Amino acid sequence: MTNPIDLYYWPTPNGWKISIALEEMGLPYKVHLIDINAGAQFDAAFLKLSPNGRMPAIVDPDGPDRAPISLFESGAILQYLARKTGLFTARPSANASR
Ligand SMILES: N[C@@H](CCC(=O)N[C@@H](CS)C(=O)NCC(=O)O)C(=O)O
Fold it and tell me: How far, in Å, from the CA of 1 to the mean position of ligand 1?
């Protein structure tokens, strides 16, 4: 079992893409709501994770070389999760944990 991934999320199609991927990949995760209607995407702490001021973003405490990594942009997050798990990709897993 890997440590939970932190998912910075609001229920929009871009947010759903990542929550669906995490569910289908069987990865544990914790949801942190980023209320984009209230401007939470512009909070300084969130901008450190997602400098373009958009959700979704993730922090994986078990990134490459077991070091934490943060990612933003849903396409980049999906590619990272696919490579981490070896699921939904034709490429071999670089960091298989399951
Ligand atoms: N290209 C980005 C787009 C993400 C995006 O547009 N997020 C929107 C919600 S779906 C957002 O955070 N909007 C807040 C804003 O623009 O202030 C991705 O695929 O992750």
Answer: 30
